[in-house]
Amino acid sequence: MSGASVQAAVLAALKSDVGVQEIFGTPARIIDDETDTPMFPYAQLERHEVNDKGASGVAGAEHRLTIAVLSRHDGLAAAKEALGALKRVVESGPVTVAGGYVVMQQVVYADTMRRADRRAFRGVLRIRMIVEEVI
């Protein structure tokens, strides 16, 4: 089980949620790379840290993902609503990871703020997961 499979599973779970699609469109504008012409609102995976956390002879890893939400319409309330939709998916239960068993999945931080350009709002969601390899 690789970090890429965990990342793909999280993004797929977020993109497939109906509540997320109501805010981010269909297909949901949730990306893991840069875009020169974004459509607002959108979410972007900014960081994915992986640390070894194996136990009892089972390979495992701690994953910390940071997802940013960017919105230009309807102020801070819209950015909070978008962030809340993503947060609800994470808190609704573990994602399905190919070759892995999600031992723990939680939101450790969520916040929204006005960006320096004063035209956009930014939300930040940090997710922590412990995933063990299925043997």
Percent of residues in helices comes to 25-40%
CATH architecture: 2-Layer Sandwich
The biggest beta sheet reads: 5 strands, mixed
Arrangement of strands in the largest sheet: 1-2-3-5-4
Distance between the termini: 11 Å
Oligomer: single chain
In the CATH scheme, the class would be Alpha Beta
Please tally the β strands and state the result: 5
- The CATH topology comes to STM4215-like
The count of helical stretches stands at 3
Structural class designation: alpha+beta
Please provide the ordered H/E string of secondary-structure elements. HHEEEHEE
Gross morphology is: elongated
What number of domains?
A: 1
Mean pLDDT: 90
Low-confidence stretches: none
Beta percentage is 35-45%
Summarize the structure.
With 135 residues, this protein is α+β, with helices and mostly antiparallel strands. The chain has a single domain, classed as STM4215-like (2-Layer Sandwich).
Would you kindly provide a written description of the structure presented here, covering whatever features stand out?
By secondary structure, the protein is of the alpha+beta class. The chain is about 30% helix and about 40% strand. It has three helices and five strands, in the order ααβββαββ. It has helices at about 5-15, 20-25, 75-90; strands spanning about 30, 40-50, 60-70, 100-115, 120-135. The chain has a five-stranded mixed sheet, with helices on one face. β4 and β5 form a beta hairpin. The longest helix is centred in the middle third of the chain and has 17 residues, at about 75-90. The chain is elongated, with a radius of gyration of 15 Å.
